[in-house]
Design brief:
Protein name: LacI family DNA-binding transcriptional regulator
Number of strands: 14
GO molecular function, one term: DNA binding
InterPro entries: HTH_LacI, LacI/GalR-like_sensor, Lambda_DNA-bd_dom_sf, Peripla_BP_I
Number of helices: 12
Structural class: alpha/beta
Strand content: 15-25%
Shape: elongated
Order of helices and strands: EEHHHHEHEHEEEHEHEHEHEHEHEE
Keywords: DNA-binding, Repressor, Transcription, Transcription regulation
CATH superfamily of the largest domain: Response regulator
Largest sheet: 6 strands, parallel
Distance between the termini: 67 Å
Strand order of the largest sheet: 4-3-5-6-7-13
Radius of gyration: 27 Å
Helix content: 25-40%
Pfam family, one: Peripla_BP_3
């Protein structure tokens, strides 16, 4: 098969053209441009081929090179709805930057949680012999892994699948909950409420565990009556406000920034001020909310960018996997003016 490139004038340049210009065989040109291991080619012939390629403006056909070598410089990323989430595809951004850093290009398929579209995307990536696949979900959860994904190296990002044998990178929810509570403790608060989600998830369990852990280290007994279940939306935080005020707490750790936004509304309606009367700490660092509330909301960030970058490093073998457990990425505090 003759591989086509593109000349300086956008005209196709073939290996045959290179062979003629360099005075060598087409087979020699193929070995040089594909950097074939073990090919016995003299230095002079190799130099002439490279000079002819520069002169003619030859660029190898990437797909043909992939098929001949059995691998590619592509990394696939299959996501359920990540490109349409409020976090604006930071996982994709992080993975793309890290891939570029190591000479790879990211191929992204956003499937909108459609299994047929997901299978088609994975099969297409396999046909293009991607180096591996990152499989990501828009929120941290346990998933069922598509069968086809086992045909190549795969890393799960922002999700996990116990028993699948696949490495994963996820947010450290417990550390994040601990950090949020520690920020409130450091501000001098001792009676701290936690508004937790009613939806079972690693975030629900992990952030509560972190809250309890921080209180324990500070020598404060855990009070179950200060944990308030709420829908993880603005309405959930707003509806919880009367209970928060009745509890006589001086600070509140909210499951996410949307809950905190609702709590802001409720606190203001009761004639109270943030943080003078009640301090508020969020989680997620959903910038369109947190940075624009008044006062701006102190929160803990979900490390979406780093999740994508860490997934690529794990796929390329740069970082080590932690065995049967997911690699956990730190959720850092973002300090503003609500505590």
């Amino acid at each position: 098969m003759t591989t086509l490139g593109h000349g300086k004038n956008n005209s196709p340049v073939t290996m045959r053209d290179l062979a003629k210009a360099a005075g060598v065989s087409v087979a020699t040109v193929s070995h040089v441009v594909n950097d074939k291991p073990g090919a016995r080619i003299g230095d002079d012939a190799r130099r002439r081929v490279k000079e002819a390629a520069i002169q003619l403006g030859y660029r190898p056909n990437a797909l043909a090179k992939t098929l001949s070598q059995g691998t590619s410089r592509f990394i696939g990323l299959v996501a359920d709805a990540i490109a349409t989430t409020p976090f604006a595809g930071q996982i994709i951004h992080g993975a793309q930057d890290e891939a570029w850093k190591h000479g790879y290009v990211l191929l992204v398929a956003n499937t909108d949680d459609n299994r047929a579209a997901e299978d088609e995307a994975i099969n297409m990536m396999l046909e293009h012999q991607v180096h591996g696949i990152l499989y990501s979900s828009w929120y941290h959860r346990e998933i069922t892994v598509p069968k086809a994904i086992h045909q190549t190296d795969t890393v799960l990002v922002n999700c996990f699948a116990d028993g699948s044998g696949l490495p994963a990178v996820v947010p450290d929810e417990e550390q994040g909950g601990r950090t949020a509570t520690e920020e409130l403790l450091a501000a001098g608060h001792r009676r701290i409420a936690f508004i937790n989600t009613t939806t079972p998830s690693p975030a629900q369990k992990g952030r509560l565990a972190g809250y309890r852990s921080a209180l324990e280290v500070a020598g404060i007994a855990f009070d179950e009556t200060l944990v308030f279940p709420a829908e993880p939306e603005q309405e959930g935080g707003y509806a919880t406000t009367p209970k928060i005020i009745d509890s006589k707490v001086t600070a509140v750790f909210c499951h996410n920034d949307r809950v905190a936004m609702g709590l802001y509304d409720g606190i203001r309606e009761h004639g109270l001020r943030i943080p003078d009367d009640i301090a508020v700490m969020g989680f997620d660092n959903q910038d369109v909310i947190a940075a624009h509330l008044r006062p701006p909301l102190s929160t803990v960030a979900l490390p979406h960018y780093e999740l994508g970058a860490a997934g690529v490093r794990l796929l390329l073998g740069i970082d080590d996997t932690s065995g049967t457990h997911p690699n956990r990425i730190i959720c850092p505090p973002v300090k503003r003016h609500s505590i």
